[in-house]
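Field: COMPLEX_INPUT
Field: COMPONENT_COUNT = four
Field: RESIDUE_TOTAL = 1828
Field: MODE = joint
Values follow.
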Amino acid sequence: MGGSKVLSDLLQTLSRLGNQFLALGPSVPEDEARSIERWCTRLLSSTGEASGMAIAGIIVEHWRRLNEDGRRDFLHMLKDRFGVDRDRLFAAAEKYIEDPSDLLAAELHRAAEPERQDLFRRLNLTPGGIDFLVRVREDLLSRLADDPELHVVDIDFVHLFSSWFNRGFLTLERIDWNTPAIILEKIIRYEAVHEITSWDDLRLRLHPEDRRCYAFFHPQLPDEPLIFLEVALTREMPSGIAPLLSESRPPVRAEESTHAVFYSISNCQQGLRGISFGNFLIKQVVEDLRREFPNIREFVTLSPVPRFTAWLKQEALQESVPGAEDVLRLTERENWMGDENVREELSRLLPAIAAHYFLVARNARGQVIDPVARFHFGNGASLARINLFGDLSVKAAQNALGLMVNYRYDLKDVEKNHERFVLGAEIAAAPAVRGLLPARRSGSARMPALPAGESSE
Amino acid sequence: MGGSKVLSDLLQTLSRLGNQFLALGPSVPEDEARSIERWCTRLLSSTGEASGMAIAGIIVEHWRRLNEDGRRDFLHMLKDRFGVDRDRLFAAAEKYIEDPSDLLAAELHRAAEPERQDLFRRLNLTPGGIDFLVRVREDLLSRLADDPELHVVDIDFVHLFSSWFNRGFLTLERIDWNTPAIILEKIIRYEAVHEITSWDDLRLRLHPEDRRCYAFFHPQLPDEPLIFLEVALTREMPSGIAPLLSESRPPVRAEESTHAVFYSISNCQQGLRGISFGNFLIKQVVEDLRREFPNIREFVTLSPVPRFTAWLKQEALQESVPGAEDVLRLTERENWMGDENVREELSRLLPAIAAHYFLVARNARGQVIDPVARFHFGNGASLARINLFGDLSVKAAQNALGLMVNYRYDLKDVEKNHERFVLGAEIAAAPAVRGLLPARRSGSARMPALPAGESSE
Amino acid sequence: MGGSKVLSDLLQTLSRLGNQFLALGPSVPEDEARSIERWCTRLLSSTGEASGMAIAGIIVEHWRRLNEDGRRDFLHMLKDRFGVDRDRLFAAAEKYIEDPSDLLAAELHRAAEPERQDLFRRLNLTPGGIDFLVRVREDLLSRLADDPELHVVDIDFVHLFSSWFNRGFLTLERIDWNTPAIILEKIIRYEAVHEITSWDDLRLRLHPEDRRCYAFFHPQLPDEPLIFLEVALTREMPSGIAPLLSESRPPVRAEESTHAVFYSISNCQQGLRGISFGNFLIKQVVEDLRREFPNIREFVTLSPVPRFTAWLKQEALQESVPGAEDVLRLTERENWMGDENVREELSRLLPAIAAHYFLVARNARGQVIDPVARFHFGNGASLARINLFGDLSVKAAQNALGLMVNYRYDLKDVEKNHERFVLGAEIAAAPAVRGLLPARRSGSARMPALPAGESSE
Amino acid sequence: MGGSKVLSDLLQTLSRLGNQFLALGPSVPEDEARSIERWCTRLLSSTGEASGMAIAGIIVEHWRRLNEDGRRDFLHMLKDRFGVDRDRLFAAAEKYIEDPSDLLAAELHRAAEPERQDLFRRLNLTPGGIDFLVRVREDLLSRLADDPELHVVDIDFVHLFSSWFNRGFLTLERIDWNTPAIILEKIIRYEAVHEITSWDDLRLRLHPEDRRCYAFFHPQLPDEPLIFLEVALTREMPSGIAPLLSESRPPVRAEESTHAVFYSISNCQQGLRGISFGNFLIKQVVEDLRREFPNIREFVTLSPVPRFTAWLKQEALQESVPGAEDVLRLTERENWMGDENVREELSRLLPAIAAHYFLVARNARGQVIDPVARFHFGNGASLARINLFGDLSVKAAQNALGLMVNYRYDLKDVEKNHERFVLGAEIAAAPAVRGLLPARRSGSARMPALPAGESSE
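Field: COMPLEX_OUTPUT
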């Protein structure tokens, strides 16, 4: 019996048992918010597992029908009514201070666990419970900026999700034209980098011999990809997205390809933000492709540079990057990409600026500015090439003046690169990229705005 | 790609990566104990996931080669070197006492978490990691009686296993003659109630139309049943095990059966003791069978009474149960079961004693004495019938003077029964069973050893 | 290892072996037609199975590259060069006439088998061979009208396909939103009754709770549905297609439905025309739905009437059906469906004519005129209702003046109905339908307008 | 829905429909033989497919209950009552002689087809039909020697089975410790070369890293292997069976093996005798292993020599093979294998005789004498080595004086070897084997009894 069959069977059982044990009719009490709190309380005190599942199912059902305000109230209820028992925690803390033994530390640990963690665990017993919890966190995250108090609730989500979505539980599945439609429609929906416009467009990403797509799945969410990676098999490191996705390209025979190009990676579940598995995905795919195609020698990305323009504008204001203003002026007009002179001019100015953006510039927290770069550097990739005019779409023209870059995954270096990156050492980059930086000696005068720490580079 | 394929692929990757990143040759350092501690420390400080998986794999490999003393040392190392950071916890406790806010409670919760929980989570990243942790806990439990200090380590196992083996993750699978041999051989090995003597014997438990077997599986342990339940479909509530398992019985057509008899339930993983899923299993199977065979009206067990003789001997010493000494004297000789007179005598004496054992007698902690009874009463079953001479095997003659009982699972009552049992109310039993008790009024004098609480019955 | 994996593996082996054994380079001789004949001859004389598979693969590859004329020549080559050995057959016939023994009959049977049957069997050994043969027959059927000589080749296709596509080999699969896209795109393409306009439209046919779709598959063509049936679960017998397919309808809960409506059945493989499995499909689906939903009481179709207008025009010419001319005149204008008066008029005239069309009218070969009706009556269905204005699409307005009908599948009657239909007895129809016929008594000479041939009914 | 589910569902439907349409109660008429003929006649004239399936099911059920005589009568009934229509065939033969056209040839072909072929096709419609037909042929083959008239019936079985068990329909599956027990128990039962004595013994053949087993399956017989091949991965060409199967051997790591040894191939279905797929199986396995383990360089068998002793005795009588009498005398005593002197003597005498047996000796029909040799030579293998004392079991001592041989499958030669073997050319053998033959010139005197045909060698 497959998992999803069990789920649906349990769901039927559930509604039967719910009615049976709880004398709950199909109608639901009027005052949802108070009602849902009562059910949560009841769930925590329930000792029978059948009634527990039934109650959990009722809570899920109530929540689905809540409006915006109701959902906000639900989150605050989680914060206020299902936190720690302060008296118990206070007492446990005092006792531990008196006698710091292992057993009292364990009691302190128990006392410091907010009640909502137990609530979440019990909610996870019901079919669809985990999906529900992911949705609730998605809702929470969307409110966090305006309602930072909810952060304490998020801590508990992160604690449990890190355990439940442990890499050990995930399975890697290939997505292709043999994949069920119920999953494919989610690939269309969740693609976040280069939009998939139709099922025909989707087929072009999955079906040709030189295309691959892989996703991670969790056993309790069999129809929901968590994250997916789109791959093109090529015979060279690509410099632009349009030729890569062109319908009219001659497909490369997989056995004759030499490069695997990761041109899109998309997280599917907002409610799992920060629960990291992208790094595992890329490395697992590198391993699998290497085994399947010994002919593939290079594993690279073709990646966007989403913050480039925004950074450049800021630097131009501060006059900290030479040429920034010129570049911005040149790209002011709408169709600058069509103007040969402009492109020529940019070809002269942009490389050094782009190299600076990746290798030198840092944000206020001392981090590499580009989030995509942070992700790949953090995974141990190196910067292989900067491609001018790599993406001529409106979005890329706005965000990155058309820039795209290739990151390289070389398994024998990733670990070392990763550790160096975490320690704040020099960014790993191909010599040709590094060579784009203005010469060091004279540069010190021309790039005064660098943080002091950089001089140690 | 199936999960187990992924695991084995990862394992290959792992050994490659392990050698690559860690410069670890196939040979292993001499001083295993110190070495394994160093690897654990390194795992906790590792920031790269590939090296993390490689290190976890190395730890697993080391542990496998440890001898008895090495494994004991390993557990004590977990206790001593990977507990809480006392200074940090002390400070966090003090801060919370000063300002009992939610955020400081969260910090206190983090500080109170022993480092080994993080270690266990990281070990679970490696293929085979969860299996390893279950084995380690199995080892721990076997030492707990002699080495009670290890209990604080077990607290962490229980905390994490309760999350990882949450009912929501488990799948129910039917075990039959179409099941892979790699699973079936474990059914033979783990059967704990009525031994399976051979593959032919196994086939008799699985293959006939009137036999069923169900097990829970965890997605990370696809070849390891966690617990399984053997079922016979019959046309009456059985009173003895031999006819039920007789090879020569005429098989009942499943569509014509009226009773589902749970005659054996076995936990497979010692390392998951106390992580309860038996109750879910029985109820899920009741639901599934009910859906498949509307003709089945009764769901009952045929269960052993493992502590009966031991209890009786104790009571005989205390002269608290009338007839105890007579019964023990009658069953002193080896072949008492073959003696018609003895059986006649026992038929007169045993029923009241047995009813007393289940319904009235309690151990020092106020619990029902029989662990099997506690399990089924705790699940909400009721005591349907007491069967004299239900099991004539040597083991049952020794443990229970041949007694077997039927517990009844009536879904509409289980929740109520469960809650009443938890609250310490009267045991649910069929009137005929209750009627076996000595009459109430005169009884008060004859059963003086009952705890006071029982008088409220 | 799944079948399709084996196929692709074999395919790889094949090309390797082909080159190895046959010293065949990737280039192919110029004169394809002569070349393909040589390969066919070589295939028939080949004694090694590896070379046999390689040669078969080469033939398939050659044929794919043939143009129209090349394919016609290929068929004629099958007819002329790979027929029976006339001398051998002549001799065998003479011998049998002399001595009509069983063994000589067996020899005669062998001698009478055209060599191309053996050729087809050997071609079927290669992966993709059966698909190739189905395509070749598709090509043959498209030429048969102009080139009737090819009929003798078709006899051999029918002989082998009847064996290979025997019902016993087919598997029934449910098609739903969990079905792989590679199959779903074929459902879109092959839907022959009510066009599926997009993937969204497809989802509406498969995904809602009150929709089902089933198809037959052959193990050697795992991605190719042979025939599929679309079903709506409803609470009444529907009278028109638009409300049935309306996006905005409230979906019926499957457990509360009372009718299963077969509103579309489509053959997918032109090359399997005449190899009947439609009847098996409907009855198997009736059985499966009956088991799954005991609440479904009625199994009916909502079917088009594709030949109605054509027949009516013919009858109007012959003045054999009263009212035919009136009807045709009323429906002359393009938008007659929007004219309330016309519809009123038609409501008066059409029922009797339609009843006559189904129950009385016959074509020159004495058959019921409507091919859809012939199919369902042949399967044992009865005519349940005639629906005026059931389909307002342009196609249905042209072909059937908007008529649709319901056929009823009542399993307890289908066998009897089928046999009566085959024997030429009265068509099975609901009394209300039969009552639409002009009154029996007043019908002087019963049906004065009927063609003479009908009187023999 | 899986195939076997469909089958069992259909079976249920069937019995329902059978009772419904045919008014057949559970009881069965007394006179089975006459009754079964009536049902066969009815099946042939049935026009409805539901009743057809029901009738086919009834025939299968009747046959199962027939005793030996009943089954013999059934076969004769097939021969006598369901052969060709002689009058029709006679007429068709005459017509063809008059006008030998393609269409009349087709009609002659139809007329020459015995009615039982149609009967068999219709029986195949019922679930379990193909299994039934295989059993019936098994029964037929067991009677053929005593009842040669039945050969004409067998011709029809072979004709249809060749079509239904076409290689294109078969799937290759790996058999290992993950295979369902229902299949594994058949591996135990059908192993025909080296007996599998228990499930533990079976595990030793399937589970270790250096063991493989593969089988062909037919989609309609999912639980019935048709033929299977056992493989050992080794580091040298083995010379005896005992070390190969020794429990205590150190297992070879699959990646380090250099030889794949086919040490057992067993047909499972007597009823499919002569429907060849063994050659496909070996070559497919060679291909698969070659792909999986590029390290494997040699594919050889370790094979028995079942007819050696019988042949030797015959030759000794005719005094045609020098040394035959000596050898037989030496091996007369029961424990000759334990006698060092005997073994030494045999080591001197046997090689030349064994080489003669394989390379020179022929039976009355001019064939190689050993059936195992015929099979492998026919597949294109060559004789790689003769191993004295390769199998010390009682059976092998009796049949082959302990001889075993290795045949080599070298894919680049198999086709050529096969064709040469079919044409009667010299047997392919390693030079070392050929060198065991007595020298040619002087040999003519020493081996006078060779058939003349050999001189052309």
